[in-house]
Amino acid sequence: MFNSKTTINIALLGFGTVGQGIVDILQKEKEHLENKCGKKLAIAGIAVRNLEKKRDINLPKSLFTTDSEQLATREDVDVVFELMGGIDQARTCVLQALRAGKPVVTANKALLAEYAEEIFSCAREYKLPVGYEASVAAAVPVIRFLRDGLASSQISEIEGILNGTTNFILSQMQEKGQNYEEAFNLAESLGYLEADPSLDVDGWDAAHKLVILASIAFKKYVKLADVEREGIARVTADEIEAAKSAGKVIKLVASARKKSGKIQLQVRPQALSDTHVLARVGGGLSGVRVQADRVGDFFAQGPGAGALPTASAVLSDLIAMLRHAEMSGFGF
Ligand code: NAP
Ligand code: HSE
What we know:
Radius of gyration: 20 Å
Largest sheet: 6 strands, parallel
Order of helices and strands: EHHEEHEHEHEHEHHHHEHEEEEH
CATH topology of the largest domain: Dihydrodipicolinate Reductase, domain 2
Distance between the termini: 22 Å
Number of domains: 2
CATH class of the largest domain: Alpha Beta
Number of helices: 12
Bound molecules: NADP nicotinamide-adenine-dinucleotide phosphate, L-homoserine
Strand content: 15-25%
Structural class: alpha/beta
Strand order of the largest sheet: 3-2-1-4-5-6
CATH architecture of the largest domain: 2-Layer Sandwich
Oligomer: single chain
């Protein structure tokens, strides 16, 4: 795929929290990354909505465009990083990029929760990889862990804290006595929030990620509509205090279980005993517990949101592609 190339030209679709994180890492760790890739890395172009917006990182104006579809299919582009968010335009760009022969890396869980089947079918047709490690739990390699590491195991249950923003807000309220608004504003300043914050606080984002994990675990495309979902909007300071007095911690827990052949999917606030492994996933971290029949319990946690954790997962997908690692959709 990249064999004949000495330089990999990257199209960045989106230059917000994650897109700027990519350029930040590329600027500071270029040599290290190029050694890992065995190729030079260059930004071929950057698609944004607003060319006039002030950016934290200054790059030549000539790199920027508002025409994401044109950039995604441009002849000199070798790989497309879809970091725009949203669904319709992202879907169009990803499909067009694949049809134009470009491998894709995306961090967009909302897109995959709705259109994974279409995107992976297209990728298969064009024999191209789609990397999406950043879409769930950012820097925590849960996709590889579940899809590849546990490929031979039968998964019976997944339980996770999949949304960093809500975990951060609940943790600040519980541990620092902050009110909802203070905690929310701090989460926003750390780059945790989706462009539409209701995706976080109403549990949609956790549901999107759960759909991805459950599809991999149970080897079928599960539907977003099948997730029972409740966000954190109704969690009160009194409930947090009452839970605390009872030795419990309120967390937004996403769970997927197979019971009598049926898959049960849920995102809802739960008061967990403070000895529960997920109760200790603090701040803006994410954590995932997986139970595999005959093998046992596994747990992974780490930074699940923010510019650098997410950008590092996107770049890891590129490195995996360059190493010809298998990237076959959800692995079924
Ligand atoms: P963001 O800060 O809102 O940035 C989005 C970027 O995309 C902006 O640069 C925006 O342009 C550009 N954009 C949006 N629509 C566009 C369009 N139609 N055409 C061209 N450019 C467009 O979002 P983000 O936080 O970086 O997230 C990007 C993706 O990564 C999302 O799918 C998100 O769910 C996912 N993700 C984010 C995190 C995180 O911690 N932030 C973690 C994991 C995954 P302007 O700058 O001109 O507005
Ligand atoms: N808004 C998301 C979160 C970003 O807080 O987890 C990472 O997917």
